[in-house]
Design brief:
- Helices cover about 30% and strands about 30% of the residues.
- Helix 6 packs parallel to helix 8.
- It has two domains: about 230 residues, P-loop containing nucleotide triphosphate hydrolases (Rossmann fold, 3-Layer(aba) Sandwich), CATH 3.40.50.300; about 230 residues, Class I glutamine amidotransferase (GATase) domain (Rossmann fold, 3-Layer(aba) Sandwich).
- The chain is α/β, with parallel strands linked by helices.
- The strands form six sheets. It has a six-stranded parallel sheet with strand order 2-9-1-10-11-12, with helices on both faces.
- The structure holds glutamine.
């Protein structure tokens, strides 16, 4: 199918906006991208502004939100910062790092960020225009609820962006949390008439149970609003696509390792966790139980404990120390436990973390958890690389996103870096392994995406007998999941009506 160019000579756009946060916008956009691609349309994803600590690196070595990287993958195109020109990475409750066109620009409080919105809106529009020049369709994603009336004047990602692109809007609602009728009618009610008219219809996400029982509900919504329900998307468990938001791992309960007779691995859910999707390949292994844990508990039942990335290393370090985690971790290691740190988790495990310029809070130094002989200083410029590395003869790929630079004062490096952003690495040593080999850490995110590296790490923690199939991870495996998602989506959507939207756009 071909799309009609708009009068401006640019490709049409459609926008998926939400009735709230975490209603499943990203996954619907991912499904839409693969659906349109399967109909022969060259499609690209776009989200003007993303607030997330879950980011990745483009082939050009620039940083962008992982959700748009996933959507680009579903569109079978390389990710580009135009797909997510503004990324806000929360460091504190009131401040964030502003990543503009893939580069960390500054730390901003919500208030001063607000004052820069107009300039940023222009940058975001230019990105969208470029995407529209290069593709046949752009599927835009909104942020949070599109009807936050107090924020509408400064909106650069929801209806204002849809207006700029003259895009019809699909409103995504989440029936699982209840109140779906009020979500939809209430959202429309909060919008001025011209914006309400822009909403073409609805997708109801996360339906559980017998869908026939909801037919009345669909009729009610259509009669009440005069707009179409494009489809009701049932809950699924047979498809794995990485999650966008760390709310999926919020407030995890205490767990009993080994409860199912399987070896268990714990990831400590630190307050500013970043790139929690690093562990998706581990959760996919049936023979292992992977848990996120937050409350201090005895660790002796775990085969290994992981300290993940952090967007505020010193804050999380203080949290680990004052809450009792630091002592618990040291005792666990003294008793033979295995610990792995990734990025911020690596920094935490050293002797000190220095932040002389206050990049992540007030300037100063903080004593580390002291599990490794390393010392870290946070300083610009930010490192953002796609890397290739070697671990004792096993090759892997990963990506680095950090301000910190870490000096090794003992132990040995974990990886030899072979390549960064397609060129020679700045420093060919990465990470640190303790003398006894049980404590190790690296800057490399995404290391478990390489099955051979996962296998190698499982050997290190005494789980070398667990089979790791190459078919479970990597690009080909993810591509199959996008097809499964599109299939599920098509089964439950009025596909003709969706295609009709593109014609009208
Ligand atoms: N991704 C991370 O874990 C980043 C670690 C730390 N906040 C830094 O910027 O160096």
């Amino acid at each position: 199918m071909e799309t009609e160019m708009t009068a401006s000579g640019k490709a049409p756009c459609i926008a998926a906006l939400g009735t709230g946060s975490d209603v499943g916008k990203s996954i619907v956009v991912t499904a839409l991208c693969r659906f349109f691609l399967n109909r022969g349309i060259r499609v690209a994803p776009y989200k003007a502004q993303n607030m997330s600590n879950n980011s990745g690196v483009t082939p050009e070595g620039l940083e962008m939100g992982r959700a748009q990287i996933v959507q680009a993958e579903a569109s079978r195109i390389p990710p580009h910062v135009d797909m997510n020109p503004i990324l806000l990475k929360p460091t504190t409750d009131v401040g964030c790092q502003v990543v503009l066109m893939g580069e960390a620009r500054e730390n901003s409080t919500a208030l001063d960020y607000h004052q820069k919105k107009e300039r940023l809106f222009k940058t975001a529009c230019e990105s969208l225009d470029r995407l529209r020049d290069q593709h046949e369709l752009v599927v835009m994603e909104g942020a949070g609820s599109c009807a936050e009336v107090n924020l509408m004047a400064g909106d650069i990602v929801n209806l204002r962006m849809a207006e700029y692109a003259d895009a019809p809007v699909i409103l995504i609602a989440d029936i699982h949390r209840g109140g779906v009728f009020a979500q939809i009618v209430g959202t429309l009610e909060c919008l001025p008439p011209e914006q309400r008219d822009r909403i073409a219809g609805f997708i109801i996400n996360r339906f559980r149970g017998d869908i026939r029982l909801f037919e009345d509900g669909v009729r009610w919504i259509e009669q009440r609003t005069g707009k179409k329900v494009f489809g009701v998307l049932p809950w699924y468990t047979h498809i794995t696509i990485e999650a966008e938001d760390s709310v999926v791992i919020e407030s995890p309960p205490a767990v009993s390792p080994g409860r199912l007779g399987k070896p268990s691995v714990a990831v400590i859910r630190i307050p500013h966790i970043s790139n929690f999707t690093d562990f998706d390949p581990l959760s996919a292994i049936d023979e292992i139980d992977l848990f996120f844990i937050e409350k201090v508990q005895n660790l002796s039942g775990f085969a290994a404990v992981i300290l993940p990335g952090s967007k505020n290393t010193r804050f999380d370090l203080d949290w680990l120390k004052t809450g009792g985690w630091a002592d618990t971790l040291r005792a666990y290691v003294d008793n033979g436990g295995h610990v792995l740190g990734i990025c911020g988790g690596y920094q935490l495990m050293g002797q000190y973390v220095h932040d002389p310029h206050g990049l992540e809070g007030t300037p100063g130094s903080e004593e580390g958890v002291r599990l490794l002989p390393v010392e870290t200083t946070l300083k610009a410029p930010k490192t953002t690389t796609r890397s290739r590395f070697m671990w004792d003869g096993t090759e892997g790929t990963g990506y680095e996103i950090h301000m910190g630079q870490t000096d090794r004062l003992g132990g040995s490096p974990m990886f030899t870096v072979l390549e960064q952003n397609g060129g020679t690495p700045h420093n060919s040593e990465d990470g640190c392994v303790s003398q006894n080999g049980r404590v190790m850490a690296t800057y490399m995110h995404g290391l478990f995406d390489t099955p051979a590296i996962t296998r190698r790490w499982l050997e290190c923690i005494g789980l070398g007998h667990i089979p790791i199939s190459d078919a479970r991870s990597g690009p080909a495996a993810r591509d199959r999941e996008y097809d499964l998602l599109a299939e599920h989506f098509e089964q439950h959507m009025d596909t003709e009506a969706l295609l009709g939207l593109v014609d009208k756009a």
